[in-house]
Amino acid sequence: MSKELENKGQTNVQAETTPSNSVTPSPLVAALRREKPDWAGEVIEAFGEVTVIVPRENILEICSYLKTAPSFEFNFLADLCAADRGPEEEPRFEVNYHLFSITKHHRLRLKVLLNDDDPHVQTVTGVWRTANWHERETFDLMGIIFDGHPDLRRILLPDDWEGHALRKDFPLRGYEPYSLT
Amino acid sequence: MSATLPPQFEVIDRPLDTQMTISMGPQHPSTHGVLRLELILDGEMVVKSTPDIGYLHTGMEKLFEYKKYQQGIVITDRMDYLNPLGNNLAYVMAAEKLLGLEIPERAQTIRVLMCELQRIASHLVWLGTHALDIGAMTVFFYAFREREKILNLIEAASGGRLTPSYFRIGGLMMDLPSGFERRVQQFLNDFPEALEEFHTLLSGNRIFQKRTQGIGYISAEDAIDWGLAGPCLRGSGVNIDIRRTNPYTGYEKYDFEVCVEQDGDVWARYMVRMREMKESHKIVVQALSRLQPGPVKADAPKVVLPDREAMKTHMDALIHHFLIVAEGFDVPEGEVYHPIEASKGELGVYMKSNGGPKPARVHFRGPSFVNLSALPQMAEGCMVADIVAIIGSLDIVLGEIDR
Fold first, then answer.
1. Which of B225, B246, B335 sits opposite A105 (nearest CB)?
2. Beta partners for A107?
3. Chain segment A124-165, per-residue pLDDT in tens
4. ipTM value for the complex
5. Stated pTM of the model
6. Distance (Å, rounded) from C-alpha A102 to C-alpha B112?
7. Residue A118: CATH number of its domain
8. Residues whose CB is less than 8 angstroms from the CB of residue A161 and which lie 6 or more positions away in sequence, other chains included
C-alpha cells in the first residue's frame, strides 16, 4: 500500500480511538510512570491501546499488583493469548495478557517475551481463575509452559497430539492425516 | 463382569462407595453440540464436573494466518454460528483499527441495526433450547417462528441466513435492499407481542421457576474472577456492558438500559436475556429512525471494493478491484485487541499484523469458552438435571468454544 494511505491511517486512529475509551490512555500511562517508574521505558502506546512489556520473572508480581492497586484495579482478565514471531526470531514468542477493570473501565496489555529454547512463564491462575483455560489453550496450541499451573493439559487437541499447531513452523495441514481410531 | 469395564466404572464391588463417574455427551442433546462433561456423582448429586471440549476444533485461528484479511470474514461466521454478524463486526473493526479507516454514518447505523436484530435472534435460540432442555417444548416453536423472521431479514440484506458475512473491512457488503425498512418495521410491530407470549409461557410458570431459581448460583466476585461476561456477568449483579463502557460503532448515541439482576442464578440470567431482547428492540427502533441516505463504504479505494457500476466504467476502479481481489491490501504493522458486546458476552479479537495482506496472528476471545470454564463452580452440589439447566443458562455455542 502507498505511504500516504498509511500515514492517513495513523492520524485517523488517534482521532478515532481516543474518545471511545472512557479513560483515555494517557492518565493510565501517567499513573504507571508515577507508581512504577522502572517500567516507564517499556510502555508503548499505539492505536489507542497501552502495552507494557514485562520481564518474565516479574509477571506474577505485576499482575497481583495491578489487580489490587487502587489506581488500576484490573480485576478482570479479558484474554490471554500468545503469538509466534517465527522460528528464526529471537525472542520467538510473545504472551499477551489483556486486562480490563470492571470499576474503572480501562484496558491494558501486558506482554512477556520468551525464547524458543525456554518457553516457560509463571502461571497467573492464582490471580485470576479464568486464566486456567486460557493458559491451557496457549499451552496446547503454542507450546508455552506455564509453571505452577494446576492442570496443564491439552484442551482443544487430542491428548496424544504431537507438536503445537499454531507455531509458524507447523504446517497448515499437519504432518500426516490424523485419525481418531 | 467388572473386569471388562474401565476402572472408573467399578462401583459394584464396593457397595459403600457410592460415587461413580459418568460421561455426559458429546452426543447428549442438552449439551448444545459436542460438549462432553465428566461427572463424578454421589447418587444424583454432582460432586465434580469437568468439561471436556475440542470435539469441534477446526483450527480456525491457524487458518486466518493463511487467508487475506477480507477472506477471514467468512471464517468468523462459522465460530458463533448463532451470532455471525457480531463475529463479523469484531473482526472487521479490529482490521479497521489497524488501517485507521473512518466508517460512514449510514454504515455504522446499519451495523448497529443488524447486530441488534442478530442479538434478538441469538437470544431466541437460547430461549427455545433452554426451555426445551428444562422440559417446556412449546416455547421452542414460538421462539423459532420469531427467529425465522429475523433470518429472513438478514437474508434479504446479505443473501445468507446463517453465514451473512455482511460487514466488510471499511463498511458493508452492499446497501440495504429497497423495502427493507418496511420489513423491519413490520417485525418491530409484531415482536413485543411475541415477547409477552414468551413471558406468559415461562416467567409465570411454577415448574420453570422451581427449576431455575436458586440453581447454579455464582457470586459477583466469583463471576469476575472466572471472567464471565455478558448476560452471565450481569445476572450476578455486575453492571457492565461494553456497549456502554467502551462504546463502538456509535452505540453511545443510543438510549438503552443495561439489564442487571442481582440473584446470580439461572433465573437471573434468564431475566437478563429476556429484558435484553426488549432493549435490543428499542435500539433497532432508534437505529431505524436514524437511517439517512449516504455511502455505506469508507473512502479508501485501495481497501474497499468499488461499486459494480464504477468498476465497469472507471479504469482506476477496475485496477483497484483487481488488486484487492488478487493480491489483497497491506495492513500497517501493529497489534490491536478489539472487544465488542456480542450476544453472549465480551467477544475480543486480537489481531497482529507484520504488514502485508495476511494477518500474523488472529485470536478470538470467545465468550462461550470463558463462560463454560466456570461451569464446575456453578454445578458443584447440584443435581444432574440441574446441570442441563445451568448449561442452558450459560448459552454456549461449541463452534466458538472449540474454534
1. B246
2. A100
3. 998 999 999 999 999 999 999 999 988 888 899 888 888 888
4. 0.86
5. 0.87
6. 24
7. 3.30.460.80
8. A154, A178
Q: Where are the beta strands (DSSP E) in B160-251?
A: 167-168, 171-172
Query: Domain limits at A118?
Result: 3-123
- Domain-wise residue ranges, chain B: 60-402
Residue A39: half-sphere exposure toward Cβ, Cα within 13 Å? 23
CA B218, B220, B226, B232 dihedral sign is positive
Q: Does A147 touch chain B (CB under 8 A)?
A: no
List the single residue in A with minimal CA-CA distance to B299.
A5
Which listed CATH number (3.40.640.10, 1.10.645.10, 1.10.510.10, 3.40.50.300) goes with B60-402? 1.10.645.10
A135 touches B: beta carbon within 8 Å: no
**A55: exposed, middle or buried (C-beta count within 10 Å: 0-12, 13-18, 19+)?**
exposed
- As to burial, measured by CB atoms within 10 angstroms (0-12 exposed, 13-18 middle, 19+ buried), residue B206 is exposed
Tell me the pLDDT tens digit for each residue of B285-342.
999 998 889 888 888 888 888 888 888 899 999 999 999 999 888 999 999 999 999 9
- CA–CA gap between residue B129 and residue B140 (Å, rounded): 6
A179 lies in some domain: no
Chain A residues whose beta carbon lies within 8 Å of the beta carbon of residue B246:
20-22, 105, 107
Contact B246 A9 (CB under 8 A): no
Residue B375: name the closest of B212, B239, B232 by CA. Answer: B232
Identify the weakest region by mean pLDDT among A32-46, B96-110, B356-370.
A32-46
Q: Structurally, how many domains does chain A consist of? A: 1
In a domain, A143, yes or no: no
> Using CB atoms, which residue from B54, B99, B246 is nearest to A9?
B99
Q: Enumerate helices (H) and strands (E) in chain A, giving the number of each.
A: 4, 7
- The answer to whether residue A69 sits within a structural domain is yes
A177 touches chain B (CB under 8 A): no
- How many helices and strands, by DSSP H and E, does chain B display? 17, 8
Residue A174 in any domain: the answer is no
